[in-house]
Amino acid sequence: MDIVLLVSASAALFVVIALSEPVAERLRLPYSVVLAVVGATLGALAVGLRSTMGAELGPEIVALLSLPIRSSVFLYVFLPTLIFQVALGLDLRRMLDDWVPILVMAVAAVLVATLFIGGALAPFSQMSLLACFLIGAIVSTTDPSAVVSIFRSLAAPQRLARIVEGESLLNDAAAIALFGFFLSFVMAGVPNPTLEDAFIGLPSIILGGMLTGWVMARIALVAMVMLGAYPLAQLSLSVAIPYATYVIADHVLGASGVVAVVVAGMTLNWLGPGRLAPATWVNLREVWDLLAHWAGALIFVLASLLIPRLLADARLWDVLLVIVVILAATLARVVMLWGVLPLLARLRVSPQVERPYRIAILWGGLRGAVTLALALAVTENLRVPADIRREVGILATGYTLFTLFAQGTTLRHVIRRLGLAKLTPLDLALSRQVIAVALQNVREEVADTVKEHSLSRDIVRSEAKRFGQRLDQAVSLAEEGSEIKQKDRITLGLLALAGRERDLVLEAFREQEIASGRAEQMLTDVDRLIELTRLAGRIGYRRAARRGLGYGRRYRLAVAAHNRLRISPPLAQMTASRFDILMNQRLILRELHGYIDGKIRRIHGKRVADLLHQVLTGREEDTAQALEGLRLQYPGYAEEMERRFIRRLALRIEEREYDSLLKDGLIGKELHVTLRQSLAEARRRLNQRPRLDLAVQKSAMLRQLPALAGLDAAQLRMVQKRIATVYAQPGDVLIRKGDPARHVYFIASGAVEVEFAGQVQRLGRGEMFGQLGILTRRPRRAQITAITHCTLLSLDEVRFLDLLSRNQTLRQAVEESTTRRGLMTAGGEDRAA
User: What is the rounded distance in angstroms from the CA atom of residue 30 to the CA atom of residue 18?
Assistant: First the structure.
């Protein structure tokens, strides 16, 4: 084909892509549906021209009309781009809240749909059952570009969008792996897999893809960090990640390339913000948004060009088969949404997915270019019998057209009818009140600005009167909500407060006061704060706030790895991140008090504002307590982190001063660039977080314990080597009644509660427990429970007795502890722990 003609055709395609977006907006149709219509129309025109004017057309035109669109173009060029970008854009931390329904719909639903569709087709089709299962796997793929583009264009709830986006991404990985497995059953001349292959081969393909994606992303991330001074090189390297990952997994290792790209994208999404500069990460996301937009549009247009070709041999009986596929696929999703998910919710395995959400998920399972690409791969495979190739092409195309034109065109209407796209009464009231306050601020700022200009007084008064009328109307609408209950006003105030907190986090991130990884974690906590406040008001707000300060599953695993396996790096890293988050959160919470007095009080009144001050003060106290607990555990490290916080603040202010000097013309551009570069280098060094050495912290804690104050240097080294650090959370049972006495514990920070014979005592920092059971060689007769987050130092029985025999200070501490707690009888019998 002539290169000029090919370039012209490519330019024409991009013109079509550019024009389709405003057309879709004007017609109120999904963008993907318009692209499908355009592609199918162009494909039909090409078929018509070839059949009617084939002899009269020049060879270049014939070559262009017969453009050899292969499945490899979709699978190796466009598909990695689409799924990698979707994986980069997912809010993975929030998806963890709904990981059960996402996995159920992405994996279990694929298997169920494959079985339902294959079983329903078998009685009506002349194909084998395995070929019917192959069709089921093909049409089980929900298209990421079609689904994500529609849901992101709607005012749908964020939770619904997360579930649908997560399903559409992971669904493809599972369905394509299943597609490859069943394809091997129907290819002639290829040994059919056995049942053993099904249980071993398929999981190995998926696990191999997951491992490949994770390794490739980690290698790429290390290389990108090394190229930190070259942001364009980092972006270029990111473009290579999905393609290299797909090829290595699919061709070199025989694993699932799609699974590998999904895992690579999610790994980079999870780790990238904490390793790359904020500007680099923002640019990377923007580049991939553009690449995915082009890839998604091209894959729809080019795949739609194939529709006339795939439907060329369709017959009336094939329409019945398409209807069977539609009914079976719908029934499979109904079973999952109304059978499995509610059952999991009742068993408390999964969070509840509300009925409107389930209807939207049912109707949002669109198929698109991915389904057509898999069907094309079958039709191109000469090892597949001709009758199977024909049926696959027709049924997959027919079902895709149904989902696009029946479901895609009505999805907006369905979401609106379900009430998912409209503001709730609280949101509507909040929006009116926010507008009223915003217009008041605008009036004040305009009045101040106008004074600086020599404007006609008549014009100023006229415009002020006009704006005042608009303001009065906005205030009137806001006052219509005066009948809103006090409880709802508190909820509105908390939502406004959480929204302002989110803005402050983003502002601190842009000012480089907060590193990317910590900013994302804080934004995730704020988003959860907003959602739970919408659901449960003040109770939900407090619950989310406590959850943000708590120690999650990952932290508990890190603690277990440290306590039981002596693996400390994960715990050290999470603790260091916690320092950063708590110090920045404390600063942000203080600023929110001014927001309450300046904005919320004007909308909701003094009573609501005072209550919000109380709630916010409670959060400040909880944050200060958590921060103080970390200071007690790691005094030297806490001091270093606070120094680092001050230095980062000083750098930001210094940078602002240089920008101001440049704006005022007091320094030139060249000097400003030089100064900014020096600040960037200083900030880069500062962003290298000081290392939290738990061994050093253990030594510092040992020296602070009164019971061990008399140890000489040799004894201290011996104890430090043998003593273990144990971290406990509130409610953890440290010693149970009846347990053998094996260890003695020293409280480095926190507090525990001793329960014995109906009496309760509390022990705090510097005290010990567990020694009496060792001294009397009897089982424990008390239960000891942590009542705060505790850091304990544990010494085993043998070394404790050896140390006790050689250290007078420790013996005195044991006697004082025993006397003070009154837990020994006159005869010296152990009555407690």
Answer: 14
In this structure, is residue 102 part of a structural domain?
yes
Longest dimension (CA), the chain: 116
Cα separation, 363 vs 429, in Å, equals: 30
Claim to verify: residue 593 and residue 613 sit in the same structural domain = yes
Instruction: Give the tokens for residue 79.
Output: 């598909």
Of 83, 101, 213, the closest CA to residue 143 belongs to 83
What is the pairing mode between strands 743-749 and 768-769? antiparallel
Domain presence at residue 449: no
Angle made by CA atoms 603, 609, 612, in degrees to the nearest 5:
125
Note the residue count of the chain. 833
Residues 192 and 270 in one domain: yes
The Cα 746–Cα 724 span in angstroms is 10
Of the residues 687, 721, 749, the one at which a domain ends: 687
Model confidence pLDDT, tens digit, residues 36-74:
777 777 767 766 656 565 555 555 555 555 555 666 777
Nearest one of 280, 277, 238 to 261, comparing CA atoms: 238
Same domain, yes or no, for 622 and 656? no
Output the DSSP codes for 773-832.
HHHHT----SEEEESS-EEEEEEEHHHHHHHHHH-HHHHHHHHHHHHHHT-B-TT--B--
Using the structure block, give the residue that is written with the tokens 């021209």: 49
pLDDT at residue 248 in the model: 92
Q: Structure tokens of 446?
A: 């305009």
**Does 759 lie in the same domain as 724?**
yes
Q: 709: domain range?
A: 703-821
- Return the H-helix or E-strand segment holding 559: helix 553-565
Closest Cα to residue 579, out of 641, 633, 511, 621?
Answer: 641
Look at residues 523, 412, 597 and name the one whose alpha carbon lies nearest to residue 31: 412
Integer-rounded Cα radius of gyration of the chain: 33
pLDDT per residue over 480-525, tens digit each?
Answer: 655 567 777 788 888 888 888 888 887 887 777 777 677 778 888 8
Helix extents (H) in 483-550: 486-510, 516-549
129 neighbors 116 (Cβ within 8 angstroms): no
SS3 content of the chain, % helix, strand, coil (to 5): 75, 5, 20
Spatial CB neighbours of 58, under 8 Å, sequence gap ≥ 6: none
Show the beta-strand stretches assigned E in 601-723.
none
Both tokens assigned to 112 = 């169920």
Question: Quick one: 180 and 315 in the same domain?
Answer: yes
Q: Residue 745 has what DSSP assignment?
A: E
Tell me the per-residue pLDDT of 658-678, one tens digit each, with 9 for 90 and over: 888 888 888 888 787 888 778
Q: Which of 386, 481, 373 is nearest to 77 (CA)?
A: 373
What is the pTM for the complete model shown?
0.63
Q: Is the pLDDT of residue 145 over 70?
A: no
